Structure formats: C-alpha cells, structure tokens
C-alpha cells in the first residue's frame, strides 16, 4: 500500500455514505482516513489516543463539552485523548482523520453509528 499513489479527490468520489471512514493509506502505526460528514455524530471519546481532523472542504463543528471548535478548509484540530466530543456538519464536509490503527470511530460510546474501517472500493 505504501508504494501506491493515492488521490484524495478520487477516494472521496468513491465514498457513498456519511460517517464511514475509509483508509486512504497507513504510515507506521497510523491510518490516514478519508470521510464524508453530514449531520450530527454521537458524543464519544477515545481514551487511549488523540484524534486529528483536517477539513478539506465544508465547515465542520467539533463540539466539546465546554466550547465549539469551527473548522473550515485546510484547518486542522486535534482532539486530545479522553476528551468527549461530537463532530457535526450542517452541509457535507470532506475530511482526513489521522488515528492509530484499530481506532473505532465511535470510541468508547459504541452504538449504531459504529463503522468498521473500510477499504476504498
């Protein structure tokens, strides 16, 4: 996988559902994931890892219990490990996520929005 060139726009064009991260590539023990976001996700945390969001287009709001963080194109924000958060977007957002391999999208919350990491079609 590391020898192949990946195109973010091509990868996003193949994703058909929101909130289902797809592996774009991996580096060391981390996955670089592409995801389409729309609506509200669940409140959750990742007790053992930070989570990096990079917005490619659209406006993503990451709700924290004490404030909202608003990200636009090319903005990056790291949610520290153990911090409860809920991403939401009023319109479609395309984003990259950087997380250790095996990180579950709903963290410790689980539930019906939990999505296994998917490979690009």
Automatic annotation (TrEMBL):
GO molecular function, one term: isomerase activity
CDD domains: cupin_YdbB-like
UniProt keyword terms in alphabetical order: Isomerase
Ranges for domain Cupin type-2: 37-95
Keyword Isomerase: yes
The organism's place on the tree of life at top rank: Bacteria
Pfam family, one: Cupin_2
Chain intervals for the UniProt region annotation (Disordered): 100-121
Range of residues in the leader sequence: none
Family matches, as PANTHER family: 16.7 KDA PROTEIN IN WHIE LOCUS
The protein's name: Mannose-6-phosphate isomerase-like protein (Cupin superfamily)
Taxonomic path: Bacteria, Bacillati, Actinomycetota, Actinomycetes, Micrococcales
């Amino acid at each position: 996988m590391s020898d192949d060139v990946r195109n973010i726009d091509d990868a996003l064009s193949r994703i058909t559902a929101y909130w289902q991260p797809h592996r774009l590539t991996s580096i060391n023990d981390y996955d670089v994931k592409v995801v389409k976001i729309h609506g509200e996700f669940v409140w959750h945390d990742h007790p053992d890892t930070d989570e990096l969001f990079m917005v490619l287009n659209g406006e993503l709001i990451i709700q924290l219990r004490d404030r909202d963080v608003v990200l636009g194109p090319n903005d990056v924000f790291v949610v520290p490990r153990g911090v409860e958060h809920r991403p939401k977007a009023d319109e479609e957002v395309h984003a990259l996520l950087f997380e250790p391999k095996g990180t579950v999208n709903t963290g410790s919350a689980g539930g019906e929005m939990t999505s296994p990491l998917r490979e690009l079609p």
